[in-house]
Amino acid sequence: MKINKKIIQELSDYLKEFNLTEIEITEKDTKIKVSKNNVSINNQPQVISPSSSTTKSANTQTPNIKSGTEITSPIIGTAYHAPEPGAKKFVEVGKKIKKGDTVMIVEAMKTMNHVPSTAEGVVKEICVEDGQPVEFGQTIIILE
Questions:
Q1: Taking the alpha carbons of 78, 79, 83, 87 in that order, is the dihedral positive or negative?
Q2: Is residue 99 part of a domain?
Q3: pLDDT level of residue 88 (50, 70, 90 thresholds)
Q4: pLDDT per residue over 30-44, tens digit each?
Q5: With CB atoms counted within 10 Å of each terminal CB, which end of the chain scores lower, N or C?
Q6: CA gap 122, 4 in Å, rounded
Q7: Is residue 109 part of a domain?
Q8: Helices and strands (H, E) in the chain, number of each type
Q9: How do the residues of the chain divide into helix, strand and coil, expressed in percent and rounded to 5?
Q10: What is the pTM of this model?
């Protein structure tokens, strides 16, 4: 993984500018977290943990900007929007779905696992791309 030093420097500058102790950015499958080191002599910002991840930390201090009912992945695997390539997607934004309707398939260990809706509503957002890896508990669909 190649680390973009410019992004780290920009995040460090934001720490100083807004008097923050920690800042984190997530883009696709890369997460960079920059924090002030409390035991540092110069009190310079320090990169704590650049890592590849698609999940957000439970103690993230940023507000949750998602509103609505979240449907999450029940397992780790690869998400698919349709039962097979070229087939009609299970859900589209704006489609009304019922509790128990299949919203996606998550493939794990060559097994196709249908993900049922845990609630009834209208699809507000599809949070993962077709063929994208997903983690356990990751939001895949948001309903209104």
A1: negative
A2: yes
A3: very high
A4: 777 887 765 444 444
A5: N
A6: 39
A7: yes
A8: 1, 12
A9: 10, 40, 55
A10: 0.53
